[in-house]
Amino acid sequence: MALGFRALPLTFLAHALAIAGAVMVLVWVLYYRGGMAWEAANKNLIFNALEHFKRDCRRMPAVFHDSWHFSYKSLPLKKEVKKVVHLVLHAIAIILGCVGIAAAFKNHNESNIANLYSLHSWLGITIISLYGIQWIYGFLVFFYPKGSPTLRSECLPWHVLFGIFVYILAVGNAALGFLEKLTFLESSGIAKYGPEALLVNFTAVVTVLYGAFVILSVLGQAPIEDDDSYSAI
Amino acid sequence: MALGFRALPLTFLAHALAIAGAVMVLVWVLYYRGGMAWEAANKNLIFNALEHFKRDCRRMPAVFHDSWHFSYKSLPLKKEVKKVVHLVLHAIAIILGCVGIAAAFKNHNESNIANLYSLHSWLGITIISLYGIQWIYGFLVFFYPKGSPTLRSECLPWHVLFGIFVYILAVGNAALGFLEKLTFLESSGIAKYGPEALLVNFTAVVTVLYGAFVILSVLGQAPIEDDDSYSAI
After folding, report:
1. SS (H, E, C) A153-175
2. How close, in Å, is residue A100 to chain B by CA atoms?
């Protein structure tokens, strides 16, 4: 049941999609939605800051994936250094995610919008919580105080599977966020087939494709022969 | 990297979640949304018929999964019979999906609502198309005229992977649909923390959990020792 394809070309495609998606979000926020701010009379600018941070958060797995394939596999780094790269990148992603969520609450509170009523918000809180639990569990088992080799090798496939699960949820929740925000804007009068609506929908499509190619890269083979990073952690 | 857990208990959980989700959709449609119809003065009833059909469509993989584990693996059926069960169940799912999409167009056209402007509709058309392509490709390669054993064994992991990919997209798009419809209803005045909103959001949560447990079941080990169904197809 091996898929037997090389992951390297897919990682380039995933990165290209990540950059395309990030540029599309920036065009949306800066050109159509009037920019970003943390303190602003126009509270929507705080929401835009949120979009920016969440986008950063979603890009982190690609950054990590880069480090996995090019530093984990090919750079002559010690295993412990590679683990530190892994856990630091994910810590950054979690912090960015928390800043994004804080921006959402700040925007809602200052605009008298209800908090935590939508599926997007429920899943967002769930995902950041699962992500945090995954990080702490990984830190304890694989880094410090570190479980026995048996425990680590038994935990590893679950760590990978749970990571992929949380990642798919995060990509799906990004799509929910794009749809929710665009539905609000269309209710307030922007054209359903207008340029902004098409931009947002295509950004969501690019995000989903990006997520698919990241997962496909993870399932593919590493470019270097020495493919024991998983088993040797 | 083997996960090494038994799939059987998870399939019960997946089925329980499928039933719970189906009951929740029926309560929503029948109690809160006034029932279902194909021809109706109240065009929303056509939309409700759509919801019902789409739910049936999403339940099909569970039905198939059942057949996989209990007829593919444990019943003394010939391999060709098992394949027929597989392709017939998926054909039913595709037909139900098409009926659902037809109901959406019918509702939109009769209510003068624009078609195909939302992310949910774009993904829906994409998913049913990919699903149809997957079915035709599977039929040609694995059933009739049937490729060589080498071709079949090379195609099989991609067939499984693409099937899982389309399934995850379908579950995600179901969540988008719940969010979109609820956002419309909330814009029209239903309470954001009211019983209907909570019911719809929890239905979406149950749907996502259901999808996760179906995937987890697929990744688990079959209950019967004879686990060569994949390689021997």
Report:
1. HHHHHHHHHHHHHHHHHHHHHHH
2. 21
Number of A to B CB contacts under 8 A, please give it.
98
Do residue A158 and residue B123 have CB atoms under 8 angstroms apart?
no
| Closest Cα in chain A to B188 | A187
Considering the segment(s) B8-221 as one domain, its CATH architecture is Up-down Bundle (1.20)
CB neighbourhood size of B150 (10 A): 8
Question: A29 and A52 in contact (C-beta within 8 Å)?
Answer: yes
Residues in chain A within 8 Å Cβ distance of B165:
212
Architecture of domain A8-232: Up-down Bundle (1.20)
What is the C-alpha to C-alpha distance for residues B187 and A188, in angstroms, rounded to an integer?
10
pTM score? 0.90
| Residue in this structure with the two tokens 């019983």, named with its chain if needed | B195
Please indicate if any CB of chain B lies within 8 Å of the CB of A5: no
Across chain A, which has 233 residues, the per-10-residue mean pLDDT values are 76 91 93 88 85 71 60 66 89 92 92 95 96 97 96 94 95 96 94 96 96 89 50 44
Contact by Cβ (8 Å): B199, B24: yes
Distance CA A65, CA A73 (A): 11
> What residue spans define the domains of chain B?
8-221
Q: Do A184 and B183 touch (CB under 8 A)?
A: yes
Interchain proximity B119–A175, CB inside 8 Å: yes
